[in-house]
Write a sequence for this structure.
């Protein structure tokens, strides 16, 4: 690990905006944000993976991975981050370095040629270059190559120094944010600037969730200058320092960006959520209040309340048919980060009971919000072994499991409904419309008659196997 990368990682572990790191002692802080990864283990994503998923939703740039083919193959398009226009971000571009490049020391030359080729072919506004484990171990100076390419080719080349071995996916998110702070944000001026410009940080437009929020802001006359990084354009991110307010959606990912933008450019930030009716309304109020403090028209507060009243009434009217069927249903929530508490709020609004929620990747602030929502007996868990989760579901502790795709088979084996709420999901759950979508999908999963069928015992489990075989149709050979 280079000295500059060591210094950057150490700085992130001392991030004053992260309550979890600040509360640690000197020895614990040096160990990082999570248990060190075992090389080769499936540990839920490495630092490179975290950096790539945080930056890939910038849709009009080329994302070039400097490393073996497998690194790009594993990380390509692993989230449904949607774009309203450009599709350049969906290209899988890699230098595909081989053993010969390692032995001959030709990795840097290969990287420069790759940068030159993608600029000539696609003419992007910028190229993001990701360092992976192999070039980092053999000493390729990705930052120097990017500086040289920027000077020679006239296109910004952004080094993202987050090789997988330095830590977990969450650390990679923060290293991606550092790359934006060091090389992108503040490098361009916006074409238009208004007193109601805001940025949203840590929102990746999964399945188009940003598009459920943008119309609400448009109706209030609030201009979304940049979403970092969902459906983002390079120029929007580069000029994001001229916004008046930052909303932080996921503090575990980009808290360093929010805090440093406040230090450098005086942009206040707050943490909020667009999951659930109440949280969406609270976020809109917070945005309006901060904008007015920053000089926006005072009538923005009244217009915000009018919009909230109208949208809440409309949402509750659409949710009314589902409330009786879902009230009292028990949910096991196995996710992390902002969803560990924001989804709890959304479920409780429908009268559902959250029997447990995971706090993986959750900050101390996230855990406090869970306690406030669920009361003093809040059942928070870190990691649940599959065997234990299976036992809970088989006992009937929960009526449905809400989690990511990796645990769906535990629910299916236990014959319990399951709903995907992680980044692989195909439905958008943000905002007032997203709440209706979430409730509709919950109702569909819970009321699906398939579950009763699969829970019924098989004929050979309740009767005489010989009698069952006697009644079975005979196999007729085909001549």
């Amino acid at each position: 690990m280079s000295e500059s990368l060591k210094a950057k990682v150490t700085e992130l572990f001392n991030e004053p905006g992260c309550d979890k790191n600040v509360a640690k002692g000197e020895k614990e802080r040096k160990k990082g944000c999570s248990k060190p990864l075992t090389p080769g283990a499936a540990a839920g994503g490495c630092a490179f993976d975290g950096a790539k998923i945080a930056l890939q939703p910038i849709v009009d740039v080329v994302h070039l991975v400097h490393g073996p083919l497998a690194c790009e193959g594993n990380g390509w398009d692993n989230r449904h981050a949607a774009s309203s226009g450009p599709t350049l971000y969906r290209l899988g571009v890699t230098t595909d370095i081989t053993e010969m490049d390692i032995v001959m020391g030709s990795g840097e030359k290969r990287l420069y040629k790759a940068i030159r080729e993608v600029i000539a072919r696609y003419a992007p506004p910028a190229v993001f270059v990701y360092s992976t484990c192999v070039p980092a171990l053999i000493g390729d100076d990705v930052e120097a190559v990017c500086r040289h390419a920027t000077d020679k080719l006239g296109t910004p080349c952004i080094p993202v120094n987050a090789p997988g071995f330095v830590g977990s996916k969450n650390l990679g998110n923060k290293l991606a944010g550092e790359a934006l702070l060091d090389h992108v944000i503040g490098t361009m001026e916006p074409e238009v600037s208004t007193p109601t410009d805001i940025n949203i940080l840590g929102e990746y437009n999964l399945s188009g969730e940003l598009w459920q929020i943008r119309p609400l802001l448009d109706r209030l006359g609030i201009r979304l200058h940049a979403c970092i990084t969902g459906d983002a354009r390079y120029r929007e991110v580069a000029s994001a320092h001229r916004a008046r307010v930052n909303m932080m959606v996921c503090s575990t990912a980009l808290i360093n960006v929010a805090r440093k933008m406040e230090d450098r450019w005086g942009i206040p930030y707050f943490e909020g959520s667009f999951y659930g009716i109440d949280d969406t309304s609270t976020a809109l109020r917070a945005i309006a209040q901060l904008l007015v403090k920053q000089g926006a028209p005072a009538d923005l507060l009244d217009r915000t309340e009018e919009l909230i009243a109208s949208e809440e009434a409309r949402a509750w009217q659409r949710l009314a048919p589902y409330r009786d069927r879902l009230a009292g249903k028990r949910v096991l929530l196995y996710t992390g980060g902002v969803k560990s508490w924001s989804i709890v709020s959304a479920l409780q609004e429908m009268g559902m009971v959250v029997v447990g929620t995971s706090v993986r990747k959750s900050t101390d602030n996230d855990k406090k919000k869970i306690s406030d929502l669920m009361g003093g007996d809040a059942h928070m868990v870190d990691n649940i072994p599959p065997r234990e989760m299976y036992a809970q579901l088989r006992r009937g502790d929960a009526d449905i499991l809400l989690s990511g795709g990796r645990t769906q088979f535990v629910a299916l084996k236990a014959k319990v409904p399951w709903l995907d709420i992680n980044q692989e999901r195909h439905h958008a759950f943000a905002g007032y419309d997203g709440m209706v979508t979430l409730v509709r999908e919950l109702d569909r999963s819970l009321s699906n008659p398939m579950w009763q069928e699969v829970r019924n015992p098989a004929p050979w489990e309740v009767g005489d196997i010989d009698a069952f075989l006697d009644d079975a149709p005979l196999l007729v050979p085909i001549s």
